[in-house]
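Table 4 source record.
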Amino acid sequence: MSDLDLLTRSLARNVKRWRTERGFTLDTLAARAGVSRGMLIQIEQARTNPSLGTVVKIGDALGVSITTLLDYEQGPRVRIVPADQVVRLWHTDAGSYSRLLAGAEAPGPLEMWDWRLMPGEGSSSDPHPSGTVELVHVTAGELTLTVDGAEHRVPAGASASFEGDAPHTYANRGDVPMDMVLAVSVPPVH
């Protein structure tokens, strides 16, 4: 079985598990996540490989991290993620990518990402739930971070924090690859 098949099956099992645990119907989760009921059915039946944006919306609506949606096993207090098990969820032909390094529930979803954006590339994010906080640390190049229409330059060695409940975009307008570590903390669903 391929890695993609394993991820698709884990996602199917976990979306259904967390939807049931939250007491959400398919219609309720579809409305909360802003995705179609049909898409949720396909995900829960492991018949589709949804986009990263769709998985993020579902995780936000359920109040769990992407890591939780992709990994059902509850391990020990310390969980080591070997380099060969880091999940690359987004990439471009030019070499840009995002990798989910680790995640936890603390008490809401907490995720740590490794991002690379090649010159001229970027990635937009829909607003996350109110109370979401993002932290970025640029290790190479310069990040152009746009939050709610305001543009901010974050050079190598610098960090930024912002509220993720507004539209935001990560972009590389420079001439060299931009690398950053990103942490996302989403409040728990009540």
